[in-house]
């Protein structure tokens, strides 16, 4: 967007107190201009069409159209960058991932406090998210071209596959996991950057779209084929001799894609596979490079299908992979490198 003008923000929430609180916190940032306020989904859609804001903060439990329905209408008629700001209750978390599927970019939990330094800290985090999001190109819904994934040399095979993702990651993961078979012969481990409190909702949502088992890993749990593992909120996931290891995050992107992918390189060497999906920043690039250096299989999402090309670009720039694939080609790529080659299968009596 044009950096010479303020970031124009529409605030949507059915609580006048919350709207006023957010407007007050955001108005302290000179780069942000509050251009509108809405207390229900229908009004939000109307103002989005009229005002064409750069960023919309969107509650989910709204009168009239709920958050996901309002987001779907906005992305159809007046595409904008949408940041969900909602309470982390079971229904709120589940609606959050319906909102992500409809086109929202990120989820942020509402604050548990109403005054003091904690509220100001939350306001700074919200402001920072809006300023970062304003740099993301607005993407309306589009059909991604189908591409045949490249053939792997002599049928390179892996025993585990790791994925790292951030902004735009949940719908990308849904697309990939929904097209993998229930009998996939390896486990999949994922580091998806997400606000604390939303991981259980993401796991429930993804469980509905894939035949694979999706769960939050337990420390010391042995990984099983055909299952997908996410770390606990606020924790990093690494793998040690086929066991999940959880540790409280040490700062930086959470969970860390670099830590996860590097652990696959150490444990599995050339039998590890990894990919970096859409997201801001460069997390996952160094971990993916470790997998490539150990002889494993690597890939990154291409620019055309990424919501944000930051993480995949970082991986490509440092030579962590040469495979820049559209999202539509990734499920076949993963399936191809996880299937056991025919010469590994036991022969019949007549062979």
TrEMBL record:
Domain Response regulatory: 8-125
Keyword terms of this UniProt record: Chemotaxis, Cytoplasm, Hydrolase, Phosphoprotein
Secretion signal, residue range per the UniProt entry: none
GO molecular function: phosphorelay response regulator activity; protein-glutamate methylesterase activity; protein-glutamine glutaminase activity
EC code: 3.1.1.61, 3.5.1.44
BP-aspect Gene Ontology terms: chemotaxis
PTM note: Phosphorylated by CheA. Phosphorylation of the N-terminal regulatory domain activates the methylesterase activity.
Catalysed reactions listed for this entry: [protein]-L-glutamate 5-O-methyl ester + H2O = L-glutamyl-[protein] + methanol + H(+); L-glutaminyl-[protein] + H2O = L-glutamyl-[protein] + NH4(+)
4-aspartylphosphate modification, residue list: 59
Active site per UniProt: 166, 193, 283
UniProt enzyme class: hydrolase
SMART domains from the UniProt entry: REC
InterPro entries in UniProt: CheB-like, CheB_C, CheY-like_superfamily, Sig_transdc_resp-reg_Me-estase, Sig_transdc_resp-reg_receiver
Domain CheB-type methylesterase: 154-328
Keyword Phosphoprotein included in the entry's annotation: yes
Cell location: Cytoplasm
Similarity annotation: Belongs to the CheB family.
Domain notes: Contains a C-terminal catalytic domain, and an N-terminal region which modulates catalytic activity.
Name this protein carries in UniProt: Protein-glutamate methylesterase/protein-glutamine glutaminase
The species this protein was found in: Hyalangium minutum
